[in-house]
Amino acid sequence: MSAAPLSLAVAFAGGVFGAALGGLPVFVLCGLAVIAGTGVLAATGDPGFLHLIAWGPFLGPHAAFGGAAAAAAFAARRGRLESGRDVLSPLMGLNSPGVLIVGGLFGSLGHILLAAFYAVPDPGAGEWTNRMALVIVLTGVAARLLFGRAGLAGRPPAGRRWRPENERDALPWHARPGQVLIIGLAFALPSAWLALAMPAARGMLFGFAAVSLVFLQFGRKVPVTHHVILAAELFAAGTGSVWWGLAAGLTAAWLAELFACLFLIHADTHIDPPAMALAGIWSLYPLLRTAGAFHPGAWLPAVTAFLIGVGGLALFTRLRISRA
After folding, report:
1. For the whole model, what pTM was predicted?
2. Burial of 323 (0-12, 13-18, 19+ CB in 10 A)
3. N or C: which terminus of the chain has fewer CB atoms within 10 Å of its end residue's CB?
4. Where are the alpha helices (DSSP H) in 225-265?
């Protein structure tokens, strides 16, 4: 990953492109590119399309999505957009070059951060974090500190931190803990299975999940699951166990809900909960491997997955009825 001037210029263009289209639409395009790139990789063994297009400086979420989210925060601060959390609206319609320039600057910033993080060597146990997800989180934090008005953790109404009102919740159909558990199971299990059954197709289900968000763009209440899929694939491929993959996918599902309540729902700019969940679960993997937690027996990962599912359900049910 290079931070050469030409790459930075392309990332600036990617941030402008993301802002012009809107964060979610450009992420859907990334999903399409991932599907195409995974097919090319499986057929030819060449990862170039994935590296340069899907995850590259123009369309990669660290530049395009991160730039779009920052541009929305800036537009809201300037009174040009109703909410800085709006990553659905194409900002080209605001007819404001300054908004697009902010998107470009954050696209370049995202690329610089990504190059810096790739300069940090990985431990032998695996990648130290999901670098792209961490960049999306950090540029979101930077945009909030620069353009937001509600502070880093937002300003929840009294007693509503864990029980958001529907009009504030970005995805109210994710609010019921049972719903999160079922959707986590339904996407983590096949993702873990496919990562082992067809290793060359890793990433394909992520692409499908990202593309499915086009329905969210049109107001349909679809699940957001790409973080669940990637976490399940990572742990399944790294351990050879579907059940460790299931445990990781469920953990990612619960973490995203936790981070949504802490950093998104009650705030006025977008910090991405799925990206936060991915950065967290990716960093957990090498720690667990170094600690020798991934035993080969089937019972331990299966029990772990069960405990994570039931424990998360109990915890979030308790939080939803609390007054904290």
Report:
1. 0.94
2. exposed
3. C
4. 226-239, 242-263
